[in-house]
């Protein structure tokens, strides 16, 4: 497995993992209509924008050149956190 910084060209694969993860993890918890309406195309656009802006640091996990997971992290939002403290904002793995 390889862990590396996410590239703009990874946006589609990141979106695919995100949508499939939601559809798997939240089946029976979130209404089916909501899960079925999730759009890889829409999420790809969102991730392209986020990666272009650099609004979050994102890393991907690859297995045999396929993205199987990703993580977004950044500075801690806690008011008392030191600059060396960060937080995981999102973490997803392919179901």
Summarize the structure.
This protein has helices at about 10-25, 30-35, 40-55; strands spanning about 1-5, 55-65, 65-75, 85-95.
- Please name the fourth-level CATH homologous superfamily: Gcn5-related N-acetyltransferase (GNAT)
CATH class wording:
Alpha Beta
Largest sheet: 4 strands, antiparallel
Low-confidence stretches: none
Total domains: 1
Distance between the termini: 16 Å
Give the averaged pLDDT, no decimals.
95
* Count of beta strands: 4
The coarse silhouette is: globular
Backbone structural class: alpha+beta
In percent terms, what proportion of residues is strand? 25-35%
> Which series of helices and strands comes N to C?
EHHHEEE
